[in-house]
Amino acid sequence: MNFIDFNCDMGEGIGNDDLIMPYISSANIACGYHAGDEDTMKKTVELAMKSNVFIGVHPSFSDRENFGRTDIRLPLQEVYDLLTKQINLLDDIVKSFGSTLHHVKPHGALYNMAARAKPIAAVIALAIKDVNEQLVLYGLSGSHLITEAKKIGLKTASEVFADRTYQDDGRLTPRSKNNALINDTDKAVEQVLQMIEKGTVISVNGISVPIVAETICIHGDGEHAVEFAKAIHHAIRNA
């Protein structure tokens, strides 16, 4: 593999975007529904352009109180509307800077619900395609997000995580569990390299789980996000 995408969730008001941006290749920018606002979106777009980083939409449930990480049951039409509104919102800003959107990566609970539920994944993929069929959908490797997008001819990037642990079925360990997060830099780097080079990840129960690693994610709100970004960037380049 000659290229591996490295993405991070940004524009969430954490205050470290400028420190992380030089080490990644794609930025997923919050659109004000779980974090951020118009001013933050503009600043993050500018940062991404300066670092020649792909600009992506990071749509979420309208749930700032829980940072978009609480499941919300909505009619599928409302999910569709959530996606289209947030994509168009960031698209207008990106165009005002003379740039273009590259991808869409759902955030938090919306991402996890779509990974598990085919109807939600399908409506997310449709919304993206209806707005701009050239956009890439970033979705959990092996999940409905990837399969449903491919069914309608949408471009996809199978996503894996540097800072999260995995269950035996390839799903992420829920954040409600104590072992959901990886906080050790060496472990994060080790997991990333295994996912890229071997196409597997070791679950919390020690099982080797097959995955497809086309884009690596770290969370910008992670305690060690800047340290992880630097270490993973250099590890990928060296490998």
Task: Provide structural commentary.
- With 239 residues, the protein is an alpha/beta fold.
- The chain has a domain of 165 residues: TIM Barrel (Alpha-Beta Barrel), CATH 3.20.20.370.
- Helix content is 41%, strand content 17%.
- It contains 8 helices and 9 strands.
- The strands form 2 sheets. The chain has a 7-stranded parallel β-barrel, surrounded by 5 helices. Strands 7-8 form a two-stranded antiparallel ribbon.
- The longest helix is centred in the middle third of the chain and has 21 residues.
- The radius of gyration is 16 Å and the shape is globular.
- The mean pLDDT is 97.
Please state the average pLDDT score: 97
The CATH topology of the domain at 5-161 and 214-221: TIM Barrel
Number of helices: 8
Strand order of the largest sheet: 1-2-3-4-5-6-9
Topology:
Elements: E1 5-10, H1 17-20, E2 26-30, H2 38-50, E3 54-58, H3 76-96, E4 103-104, H4 108-116, H5 118-131, E5 136-140, H6 144-151, E6 155-161, H7 185-198, E7 200-202, E8 208-210, E9 215-219, H8 225-238
Helix pairs in contact: 3-5, 4-5, 5-6, 7-8
Short description:
The protein is α/β, with parallel strands linked by helices. The chain has helices at residues 17-20, 38-50, 76-96, 108-116, 118-131, 144-151, 185-198, 225-238; strands at residues 5-10, 26-30, 54-58, 103-104, 136-140, 155-161, 200-202, 208-210, 215-219.
